[in-house]
Specification:
The complex is a heterodimer of chains A (725) and B (160). Chain A is α+β, with helices and mostly antiparallel strands. Chain A is 38% helix and 20% strand. In chain A, the strands form 6 sheets. Chain A has a 6-stranded mixed sheet. A 5-stranded mixed sheet of chain A has the order 6-8-9-11-10. In chain A, strands 2-3-1-4 form a 4-stranded antiparallel sheet. In chain A, helix 3 runs parallel beside helix 5, helix 12 runs antiparallel to helix 13 and helix 14 packs parallel to helix 15. Chain A is globular. In chain A, 37% of the residues are buried. Chain B has a single domain, classed as OB fold (Dihydrolipoamide Acetyltransferase, E2P), CATH 2.40.50.180. In chain B, the strands form 2 sheets. Chain B has a 5-stranded mixed sheet. Chain B has a 5-stranded mixed sheet with strand order 3-6-7-5-4. Chain B is globular. Classes of the chains: A alpha+beta (725), B mainly beta (160). At the A-B interface, strand 21 and strand 22 of A face strand 3, strand 4, strand 5, strand 7 and strand 8 of B.
């Protein structure tokens, strides 16, 4: 199967394997330091992440073990029980079980070892029952505790005709069918393969199949339709009631329906799912890929095709050039020049395309959360819709991978703490359906990812109380509203009193804070009580491609991030006002904008710009590029606009260090290096004053002749390895 | 121009020697990536003066350090002998601007002497030792020290 879900599952298996390994080492270290809170926290985080992911993939037994594990760890954290050898032994054992479950088809029924272990964990915790009760609906045993209610069963005929392109959205029809099967008893399932082309014409990325399912269910038609909620735009779904109008059913949650589908033996609801999948005449083999897979990139075929084209063109251009050089006569020169130009063009484009491969649209990550939100909504009984914006924003692959965990936690948090239940929302005059919005965009040359909800918002007073209770801050410490909000990202913080399966132990936000820090980004939280909250993650573009505006200042070429450019105005005397000794200001439509001379930032002397000493007059021929930082606008004085192009950001930090006012550098088409101005950073530099700072003088003089002595040194022999002159 | 001391191979190290203001300096060859002719350097603001700017080495942007300026030697115009020695250390790669490169020498372990004590008048921090070749002394430079000092001299730490 080639659907996205399988890929996400692989990712999850890989991530979880890492988490399990780190849990194991953590536990072993815990033996010698049983009171190490940070260690416990990190083990806890791992268990939490595994639990979260496993929930999304319906790996009920994993969730359950991880949940029990969490409970036990929580007791340890709160010092209720001590980390004795026995406890650690059980913990380690559960880590082993987790690993087994992860690799050996974790969606199979809970193995005996796991059940036994679960019992042992429970035995270690007196009075655990209260906490373990609210299991998520996808963990098997509790389902059977809900007594089968007497329901009115309706018959439905569901026609499910997916679009050809359905797989490209990462949707797996078998999951939908399985969910449908879970809503009732399937009496008949037809697979329509009439559209299936001959094997030779078959495009494996397209979906040619459609299904008709007849089932008896206590659910209402609306509830059945909800199964297909996320694919409505990708498939044609028709649901007919077979026995007239559907009867009124008082069951709010769809779970009771399962009792009809599930076999009588408890603890094997998953097996039931497997059976129904079999009924659906689909290949039942859905084993998780064993073992971690080496890091790989999924590249759109279009990109690869383009690369092949480019390489082809390049080869042709090369052959042409080689031929011309072989039988060279002066008359060929224009043709030769042409060929070289073509080659240059190709090479440049090839370079760009190859760079682009590392960049993936963030939508691939966002897609994952459709399912997460769906599950969360079901588990919490809330109505939640996920909105996505800016899915096409490209982000470096490695960053994308590291964002998975923190975003999951944020979404979980938004669904669990943010969005209120339908009744509460109604009472507050809000639509019953809560909205979680995920958006990504570029701002000031950084990638911003925002997760916002229209829920209850965060009460800073309760944040404060809570932090004091948990001993994170002193009872009378003075904190600004901003500082208070940021407390949410400290370990061990939770505003929720009761602990749910989804979140609420105060580990999630801590993970967010850390992961974003690792990416050199920043987290911001904006919240308004009753209106919702927004978490913005700002990330630097370590290897991102940026739309740049190329400008000339003196004899230098600089790149300004196009996204932060508002407008360009010519500088004329009457518009420029000198404000005391502080600097110049240009009036743009009556609005004063401080001017910043890039030549000064670069340490260029005024003479090299060919102007008089007075700063104002040399503005006659110049332009000011008005750039907007998040706080204010600044006018950057430049000499000439050279044009705009996409540039690949290269870090200066790697080999040099962070340079104030620059966010990196890029290599222009001709091989020259051009610094990229950090618009936010440059605004913060003290460059407005009129004194010419004595930066290093610009004295790099080009050599009389260029030297071609780039032969590398032969390291094996002791002889002289390069020839000069 | 052959290397000397070819007998005691296991006890010797190879040095690339270059000229700065007519004095020969050496850098251990295992730290050298390649030698390039002078190519225009893009100046970068807000860095110490001896960091002349950055260069493009096949897509990687490297800082270029003028060793003359580093050692407070009189500046000269870059000419056709000016060479950028690309050296790598501790994950960082830098270009070092030198007057010209001379030779690759095999230096026996026992031929290496400690840097002479000049008292307070001279800075011996960058010196790993001196060795004799062709009747004159060559100073073996300590690249780590050269770059670590460079980092300290910067207003901000290199870590980020």
């Amino acid at each position: 199967m080639k659907t996205g879900l399988i890929q996400f599952r692989q990712t999850f298996v890989q991530e979880s394997a890492d988490h399990i390994d780190s849990m194991e080492t953590g536990l072993l270290r815990l033996r010698s330091a049983p009171d190490d809170a940070e260690l416990l926290n990190s083990i806890f985080r791992s268990a939490h992440s595994i639990k979260g992911g496993a929930g999304s993939f319906g790996m009920g037994s994993l969730v359950q073990i991880a949940h029990s594990l969490e409970n036990l760890l929580d007791r340890l954290r709160s010092m209720e029980i001590r980390a004795t050898d026995e406890v650690i032994g059980v913990l380690l054992q559960s880590v082993d079980v987790l690993r087994d479950l992860l690799y050996t088809g974790a969606d199979a029924a809970m193995p005996a070892a796991a059940l036994e272990l679960d019992a042992r964990i429970r035995a270690l915790m007196p009075g655990h029952a209260v906490q373990t009760e609210p299991d998520p609906d996808d963990s098997p045993p509790p389902k059977h505790r809900t007594a089968p209610k007497k329901q009115n069963v309706s018959l439905y005929k569901v026609e499910f005709r997916p679009d050809r392109e359905m797989f490209s959205s990462g949707t797996n029809p078998i999951v939908l069918l399985r969910n449908l099967a879970a809503m009732g008893t399937v009496s008949c399932c037809h697979l329509h393969d009439d559209e299936l082309p001959p094997l030779a014409d078959l495009d494996p990325s397209k979906c040619y199949l459609s299904w008709t399912v007849e089932l008896a269910s206590v659910s209402e038609q609306i509830e059945l339709r909800e199964v297909f909620e996320f694919v409505e735009h990708l498939a044609e779904v028709r649901i007919h009631g077979l026995d007239g109008a559907p009867q009124t059913v008082d069951a709010r949650e769809p779970e009771p329906a399962k009792t009809t589908a599930a076999p009588s033996s408890p603890g094997s609801a998953q097996a039931a799912d497997g059976e129904s999948a079999g009924v659906l005449s689909q290949p039942p083999s859905k084993k998780p890929v064993p073992g971690p897979e080496s890091s790989s990139i999924r590249v759109a075929t279009g990109k690869v095709d383009r690369l092949i084209d480019l390489v082809g063109e390049l080869v042709i251009a090369h052959v042409m050039t080689a031929q011309m050089v072989a039988n060279f006569e002066p008359a060929c020169l224009p043709k030769l020049r042409e060929a070289v130009e073509a080659m240059e063009r190709n090479t440049r484009e090839l370079q760009e395309q190859v760079m682009g491969i590392r960049m993936l649209p963030i939508g691939t990550l966002f897609q994952r959360y459709t399912r997460t939100v769906y599950d969360l909504a079901r588990a919490t009984g809330k109505r939640i819709r996920l909105e996505m914006n800016g899915e096409e924003t490209e982000i470096d692959k490695s960053m994308l991978e590291m964002l998975g965990d923190p975003l999951t936690h944020l979404i979980r948090n938004a669904a669990d703490h943010g969005i209120e239940s339908a009744d509460v929302r109604k009472a507050a005059g809000k639509p019953e359906e809560g909205v979680i919005a995920l958006s990504a965009f570029h701002r000031s040359g950084r990638i911003v990812i925002e997760i916002s909800d229209d829920g209850a918002g965060i009460d800073t007073d309760s944040v404060r109380r809570n932090a004091v209770e948990r001993g994170l801050i002193g009872p009378d410490s003075q904190l600004s509203a901003e500082q208070l909000r940021m407390l949410i990202f400290t370990p061990g913080f939770s505003t929720r009193e009761e602990i749910s399966d989804l979140s609420g132990r105060g580990v999630g936000m801590d993970v967010v804070g850390r992961s974003v820090q690792q990416l050199n980004g920043t987290v911001m939280l904006a919240t308004e009580q009753g209106r919702g909250s927004t978490v913005s993650i700002e990330l630097p573009l370590t290897l991102a491609i940026l739309d740049g505006l190329l400008v000339r200042v003196g004899d230098r070429t600089l790149v300004l991030p196009l996204l932060s450019v508002i407008e360009t105005v010519p500088l004329r005397d009457q518009q420029v006002v000198r404000v005391a000794e502080l600097g110049d200001v240009v009036l743009v439509r009556e609005e004063p904008v401080p001017l910043l001379r890039l030549s000064r930032f670069l340490g260029l002397t005024q003479e090299s710009a060919g102007a008089k000493q007075t700063g104002v007059q040399d503005g006659n021929r110049r332009l000011a590029v008005i750039v907007g930082t998040s706080r204010r606008k600044v006018g950057l004085v430049i000499d000439e606009l050279l044009g705009q192009q996409q540039v690949v950001i290269k870090s200066l930090e790697r080999h040099l260090r962070k340079v104030d006012g620059l966010m990196g550098a890029t290599i222009l088409g001709d091989g020259r290096v051009a610094p990229i101005v950090d618009v936010t950073g440059i605004g913060a530099l003290d460059l407005f004053s009129l004194q010419v700072p004595c930066k290093f003088s610009q004295q790099v003089v080009a050599p009389a002749h260029s030297v071609r002595a780039n032969s590398s040194v032969n390291r094996e022999t002791g002889g002289s390895a390069h020839e000069l002159v | 121009m052959r290397a000397l001391a070819e007998n005691s191979v296991q006890e010797s190290r190879q040095f690339l020697t270059f000229l700065l203001n007519d004095q020969e300096y050496g850098l251990e060859i295992c730290k050298i990536r390649e030698i390039r002719g002078y190519a225009p350097i893009t100046p970068i603001p807000n860095v110490p003066p001896h960091v002349r700017g950055v260069m493009n080495l096949r897509g990687t942007i490297l800082p270029v350090i003028d060793l003359r300026m580093r050692f407070h030697l009189p500046a000269v115009e870059y000419n056709k002998f000016t060479v950028i020695v690309i050296a790598a250390i501790g994950g960082k790669t830098v270009g070092l601007l030198v007057d010209s490169v001379c030779d690759v020498l095999m230096v026996a372990h026992d031929a290496m002497r400690q840097a002479p004590d000049f008292g307070a008048t001279a800075d011996t921090r960058f010196m790993n030792g001196v060795f004799e070749s062709r009747e004159h002394l060559t100073v073996a430079l300590d690249l780590e020290e050269l770059l670590s000092d460079c980092a300290e001299a910067l207003p901000q730490s290199i870590a980020a």
